[in-house]
Amino acid sequence: MVEEGNLTNATSVKWDVVPFFKHDLAVTTVFVCAYAAVCLLCLAGNVTVCCLVAQNRKLHTVTNFFILNLAVADLMIAVFCMPITLVNNIVTVWVFGDVVCKLTPFIQGLSVGASVFTLVAIATDRYVAIVRAPNGRIRERQAVVIIVVVWVLAALIVAPHAVVMETIPHPYAQGDACQEAWPAQSYRMAYTVVLFLLLFVAPLLAVAFMYTKSQA
After folding, report:
1. Are 128 and 122 in contact (CB under 8 A)?
2. From 2.30.30.40, 1.10.1040.10, 3.30.980.10, 1.20.1070.10, which CATH number describes the 4-215 domain?
3. Which of 116, 144, 163, 216 is least surrounded, with the fewest CB atoms within 10 Å of its CB?
4. Is residue 134 reached through a cis peptide bond, with omega within 30 degrees of 0 on the bond before it?
């Protein structure tokens, strides 16, 4: 059994051994350049889409509203999540505090969920327009309601992930770590299955069904 004093010394040794940065200068530079390039391209492309749709009334169609929604979801990742993920990939400890520890996975999941459900909405619009023509188009007001429902549904699905995220003392470095703290492993497994079904299987089946029917 390790005495308290020895445990403290061992922990101190671990802190001395584990560096603040995970990689050397060359690898860190590659990370920074790659993330910066992707982030700038994402910002440029999605901001352009948002400006075009917002400024040109001829582009105010249901399909373009859904595309605008996809652009907004991508911008959330580029503005908030990518810089934090970059720092988390190059330093050993979590440096952003408990609030950001919860917000980062929530916003990531929210963006993914909104994107997936928006793709389902686009497939639904196509399905309704073709199968129920000529009076089957989704109206603009209906599209706005669908977009609101998309974000609310995505938020409800990923909210548990934000709840279980917390900062704890890092076991091998002097600082904090951001990680999931589920009451039991079974809860984590069940939530993973639910996410897989709601964000992958169900949308995939729905889109496949509607596009197949639209082509028939």
Report:
1. no
2. 1.20.1070.10
3. 216
4. yes
Task: State the virtual CA torsion across 106, 112, 113, 114 in degrees, nearest 10.
Answer: 100
Query: How far, in whole angstroms, is CA 178 from its chain's centroid?
Result: 16
pLDDT digit string (tens) for 110-152? 999 999 999 999 999 988 888 876 666 788 899 999 999 999 9
The DSSP annotation for 28-64 comes to HHHHHHHHHHHHHHHHHHHHHHHHHHHH-GGG-SHHH
State the pTM of this model: 0.84
Question: Which 3 state secondary structure label does DSSP give 14?
Answer: helix
Residues 160-173: tens digit of each pLDDT? 999 999 998 988 88
